[in-house]
Design brief:
The complex is a heterodimer. Chain A contains no helices and nine strands. Chain A is an all-beta fold. The chains are: A mainly beta, B mainly beta.
């Protein structure tokens, strides 16, 4: 599975939108883009996934670049409970392999 | 999402003893389950993949005789840390893969809440 690159950390203000970027320039045609988040001392939580088209669910939106070499996870209104490490992971036929992720801090 | 439970949520044991951690998928049958380990301030590391009814596949560097995995049913996998030592102290997280077509998900992995193991 191809590698992803994410910023180590980001800050956001409560009630504002957050855009978490992920670069995956070596993505293959069959790789799905997955996002998970992990709150302190908890297991990862599934957020969203997509292949080519933008995706929306109750938690977030996923915007995928036309060339699929990057994607952005969008939290429309950040809350204090959204403070977590967000992982962008590519998965083809293999298992989920976690990188270091982006630690999101949310300020009240 | 789906619910995956782990038991116990934390355990403290003496060096040399064995500890068993259970992982259950509560609302779907999982033919494949995974075990991860996470040290403080580090990311999750995949330890092994288990398929129901067959032997687990271990990642490179993970001792299969030390970390015994049993996936005897479609909803239960267990990880036994044998002869635990202080360096085995870690956060152990299991994951279960949903069936091919289940609700709006397709082969997604859902994670348990983790088990904090401390070996004295």
């Amino acid at each position: 599975d191809a590698k992803t690159t994410q910023p180590n950390s980001m800050e956001s203000n409560e009630e504002e939108p957050v855009h978490l970027p992920c670069n995956h320039s070596t993505i293959s045609g069959t790789d799905y883009i997955h996002w998970y988040r992990q709150l302190p001392s908890q297991g990862p939580e599934y957020v969203i996934h997509g292949l080519t088209s933008n995706v929306n669910n109750r938690m977030a939106s996923l915007a995928i670049a036309e060339d699929r070499k990057s994607s952005t996870l969008i939290l429309h209104r950040a809350t204090l409970r959204d403070a977590a490490v967000y992982y962008c992971i590519l998965r083809g036929q293999g298992n989920l392999i976690f990188g270091k992720g982006t630690k999101l801090s949310v300020k009240p | 999402g789906a619910v995956v439970s782990q038991h116990p949520s934390w355990v403290i044991c003496k060096s040399g003893t064995s500890v068993k951690i259970e992982c259950r998928s509560l609302d779907f049958q999982a033919t494949t389950m995974f075990w991860y380990r996470q040290f403080p301030k580090q990311s999750l590391m995949l330890m092994a993949t288990s398929n129901e009814g067959s032997k687990a596949t271990y990642e490179q560097g993970v001792e299969k005789d030390k970390f015994l995995i049993n996936h005897a049913s479609l909803t239960l996998s267990t990880l036994t840390v044998t002869s635990a030592h202080p360096e085995d102290s870690s956060f152990y997280i299991c994951s279960a893969r949903s069936p091919g077509a289940w609700r709006e998900y397709r082969n997604e992995q859902f994670f348990g809440p983790g088990t904090r193991l401390t070996v004295l």
